[in-house]
Amino acid sequence: MRVVIAGGGIGGLSAALSLHAAGFEDVAVHEAAQELRPLGVGINLLPHAVRELTELGLADRLAEIGVATAELAYFNRYGTAIWSEPRGLDAGYAWPQYSVHRGRLQMLLLEAVVERLGPRAVRTGSRITGPGDEDLLIGADGINSAVRAHLFPGEGPPPWNGLVLWRGMTYGEPFLTGRSMIMAGDGTQKFVAYPIETGGRTLINWIAERPLDGEAPDRGNWNRRADLKEILRHFADWSFDWLDVPGIIAGADAAYEYPMVDREPLPYWTSGKVTLLGDAAHAMYPIGSNGASQAIIDARVLAHSLARGDLTAYEAARRPATTALQLSNRRMGPEVVMKLAHERAPDGFDDIEKVVPHAERAEIAASYKRTAGFDPASLNERPSWSVTR
């Protein structure tokens, strides 16, 4: 079986590795860019994605480039705690959660693909827009996918919800556990921070989010430079006892602007010898740290389904699950606790239990884990998607 993958991002490279592990030898990744470089900023890999990379034999390499996340914590815009929970091994998972630089992860996957499938397995400067003479074309070419456009012509640009994300990285002091991921905000304006390097210095990945006046430029372009002074203007008074938000923003060498866009859920992903994967199939708001993780899971389920000779099983397993996740992220996913706290106590609070009771907060967190497929007990007990040869 000859397989062509359009797109050399995290999803496409994970698909190549998964297919190879499942016994498919004739696999080629075609990337439109002339060169694959370690671009981007930080992302999180949740335990369900780390499980898949571990089963692909990449655990040690991943541990070398990632910071094992110990805690996820939510705060209001005054820095007062709303909810916190352990993550990764500390939460009872059999696999860690990692905060990692997106580009370093992509280079790790690229290196593994070249080692296992050979140097000709990845072909840069090669844009795929539709099927050719391969047996299967996998569209893993992102939110502005040309392969998706082949299946659904005239869909147009991704819809925008009026918010903008500003993203950057800054060397700074450790905060909270030293391996915490924090989100502070009020449901409209938000600041996120977590370390992606620790040791001699801590490299903090950060995201600032708020409504944007006017029309959003370059929808789906992660590399548009932003003005740090403009970002600081909106977060100048967000200085907490435990985190200096303005100092972190000001300390970045550069920041990037990204309108918050997603794609409408599709009625199908597969037509003939073409199927979709990752953002090409189900681009979602970057809420809940799920974009890259879901693409990796897609790759593993697709390879497992193909090895059993049943491509339909891939879409049957993944499309309903990711559609539910897309819609949940439009409702703010687990981050809705910040919105609830603000609506019920806009001037702050002394006792969160009187504002958003523990049972309500716990169910919001647990419900999202179930929707996204990383409920601890279910994930730990689920059979492997590895194929025995």
Automatic annotation (TrEMBL):
A single GO molecular function term of this UniProt record: FAD binding
A Pfam cross-reference name: FAD_binding_3
Domain spans labelled FAD-dependent oxidoreductase 2 FAD-binding: 3-36
Matches recorded under InterPro entries: FAD-bd, FAD-dep_Monooxygenase_BioMet, FAD-dep_OxRdtase_2_FAD-bd, FAD/NAD-bd_sf
Alphabetized UniProt keyword annotations: Flavoprotein, Monooxygenase, Oxidoreductase
Span of domain FAD-binding: 269-307
Protein name: Flavin-dependent oxidoreductase
The species this protein was found in: Planobispora siamensis
